Amino acid sequence: MALDQVDRRILAVLQKQGRISNSDLSETVNLSASACHRRVQRLESDGYIRNYVALLDARKLGVPTTVFVEITLQTQADEVLDAFEKAVARIPDVLECHLMAGTADYILKVVAENTDDFARIHRQHLTRLPGVAQMQSSFALRTVFKTTALPIS
C-alpha cells in the first residue's frame, strides 16, 4: 500500500504524540473522526505502526549511563552469528544490537547505573557472549540529541 499525504501526517503526529485521542488526531490532520480511525487501523494492520510504547526516563529509573560496545567476532559463520544474537537478546541491560558493516561486527547500546554497574554487566554478560574476539566500550558523556521519530516525507 502506498502512503498518501494524510497517512504521512497521521504517522508524523502519532510517533510524537502516541496517546493523542482520535478526535484530536482527526482535527489535526483535517479528517472526520471515523475516516481517521479507519486510516489508523489500516496503518496498524499493514504494519506501518508496529506498537505504542511509553518512553521512560533512564535517569529516574536509575540507569543514566549509556555505553556503546563495539564487538568483533572470531568468525562470521552463520552458527556463530546466530548464537551471538540469541545470547545478546537475553541481556536486559542491552537496549539495541546492530549487525554492522565496517570495523566492528556488532554495536550494542547498553544502559547501566554507573561505571561499576557496567563493569558487572561486562563481567557477567558481555564477556560470556559466544564467539567474541574483541570488545571496545565507549561511554556517552552526555546525550545531545535523541529521538524515536522517523523522518516522514
From TrEMBL:
InterPro entries on file: ArsR-like_HTH, AsnC-type_HTH_dom, Dimeric_a/b-barrel, Tscrpt_reg_AsnC-like, Tscrpt_reg_AsnC/Lrp_C, Tscrpt_reg_HTH_AsnC-type_CS, WH-like_DNA-bd_sf, WH_DNA-bd_sf
Entry annotated with the keyword Transcription: yes
A Pfam cross-reference name: HTH_24
Domain HTH asnC-type: 3-64
Molecular function via GO: sequence-specific DNA binding
Domain of life: Bacteria
GO BP terms, alphabetized: regulation of DNA-templated transcription; response to amino acid
CC terms in the record's Gene Ontology section: cytosol
Keywords: DNA-binding, Plasmid, Transcription, Transcription regulation
Listed name of the protein: AsnC family transcriptional regulator
Lineage: Bacteria, Pseudomonadati, Pseudomonadota, Alphaproteobacteria, Rhodobacterales
